[in-house]
Amino acid sequence: MRRELRLDGVGRxxxxxxxxxxxxxxxxxxxGALVRVEGANGTGKSTxxxxxxxxxxxxxxxxxxxxxxAYVPERFPPALPFTAAQYLTHLGTVHGLSRRAAARAxxxxxxxxxxAGYADTRLSRLSKGSSQKVAVAQALLAxxxxxxxxxxxxxxxxxxxxxxxxxxxxxxAVGGAVVFVDHDPRRLAGVPDAVYAVRDGSLHRRTGPAPxxxxxRVVVRVQGPAGAVLPxxxxxxxxxxxxxxxxxxxxTVPASHSDVLLRTLLTARPPWHVxxxxxxxxxx
Length: 284
Hints:
By secondary structure, this protein is of the alpha/beta class. The chain is built from seven helices and 13 strands. The chain has a domain of 62 residues. The chain has a six-stranded mixed β-sheet with strand order 5-6-7-3-8-9, sandwiched between helices. A four-stranded antiparallel β-sheet has the order 11-12-10-13, with helices on one face. Helix 2 crosses helix 3 and helix 2 runs parallel beside helix 4. The longest helix is centred in the middle third of the chain and has 16 residues. The protein is globular and about 65 Å long. It starts with a strand and ends in a 6-residue tail after the last strand. Keywords: ATP-binding, Nucleotide-binding, Transport. InterPro entries: AAA+_ATPase, ABC_transporter-like_ATP-bd, ABC_Transporter_VariousFunc, P-loop_NTPase. One of its GO terms (molecular function) is ATP hydrolysis activity. One of its GO terms (cellular component) is plasma membrane.
């Protein structure tokens, strides 16, 4: 069973006498959680994400329950002596995949992110946007238990941004955790389980429910066998689920997560029948 990642009394500073960037951080990230981190530039958001990803060690306090983690940094180093496919295949083997499985995963993610045409291009010759697609792909290769995203959407085109949102939904739907920073307040708006702000070297949880109207939503009406229980992954993906009759449910899901929800329902055993999919404001 996956454990909760915990930071207890964690502080971080650089150098023996350097100022504290973070101090007294208390944070739990349970399996399946989606956590947003906010804060002004220079407040320590990236330092917090590096601590979560295990890139940096805390100066004080402790980190426990660390899962298998992948990280997309704010700045990806493109000047490496590999092609995109070579680099991703190498990283896949580092994550424990066989070389064949790593090459297959590399091709899969380059295709999904719209970068398959650059598979044989050296990293140093890629544009900033294409380099960012490789950075995202390397984090998703081995289906991490914790995905840490530091401004990962920056530089991506609209299609790739949508694919990354779907990848986030896929990770949390199967019980993986995702922690992200993004400058766009509309990114996955209304979806995170928790939102934290980094302020004055401390971490503060935003209180109150996330606004459910902050992002586009989709309403899905489904019908299953009488007495059937919705698959557990549906509850991880849907914002709400209402039973409207024997085997009948109305689900509300963030638009970015709708593909994952439908796939879960249609591949369940026995499969659920999708009656309708529509925007909340449509009249039925």
